[in-house]
Design goal:
By secondary structure, this protein is an all-alpha fold. Helix content is about 50%, strand content about 0%. The protein is built from six helices and no strands. The chain has helices spanning about 15-25, 60-75, 90-100, 105-120, 125-130, 135-155. It is rod-shaped and about 105 Å long. The relative contact order is 0.12.
Length: about 160
């Protein structure tokens, strides 16, 4: 540290030898500065797949995903729960995917209807009434958005 003294002040200049002697008394055996470390070997890479957490699919997302897969496999229809070729409407696909009218079935239906209202207006009171008044691509768009929302909500 450099301390500048001005002769016009009342400060007495510091005797550098006295200053060094004082520090020697405070720390008689100072620890030397460590030498620069030699080049260290790079640590072994950690595989990322071992550290990523697993995300479990929630029951609502699973029900919606299974129902859409059912529609993709068996077909989609309007005006009936199941047509003569085995295609189903949206509510029929939900019932097939859920297996029973359980909590996941009800929550998936509510999420699907909410998404239908968001995309096509608030006038829709039921999934069948909405399903019967829209085209296949419009219905699929609602299904996909509902699945994304269930995924985002982790339900």
């Amino acid at each position: 540290m450099n301390t500048r003294t001005d002769s016009s002040t009342d400060f007495t200049p510091v005797d550098q030898d006295l200053y060094a002697a004082a520090f020697q008394l405070l720390d008689p055996h100072p620890t030397p500065e460590p030498a620069a470390p030699a080049a260290l070997a790079a640590p072994a890479p950690v595989p990322l797949t071992a550290t990523l957490p697993m995300r479990l699919t929630g029951p609502v997302e699973k029900t919606l995903t299974d129902a859409l897969a059912f529609l993709d496999t068996h077909g989609w229809t309007r005006y009936s729960l199941i047509n003569t070729q085995g295609a189903r409407c949206s509510i029929g696909a939900l019932r097939a995917a859920a297996g029973s009218r359980n909590t996941a079935y009800r929550d998936a239906g509510n999420l699907l209807l909410n998404e239908a209202r968001r995309q096509h207006g608030k006038k829709w009171q039921t999934i069948p009434s909405w399903n019967d008044c829209h085209t296949g691509p419009q219905v699929r768009s609602v299904w996909e958005a509902a699945i994304r929302r269930a995924h985002h909500l982790n339900i």
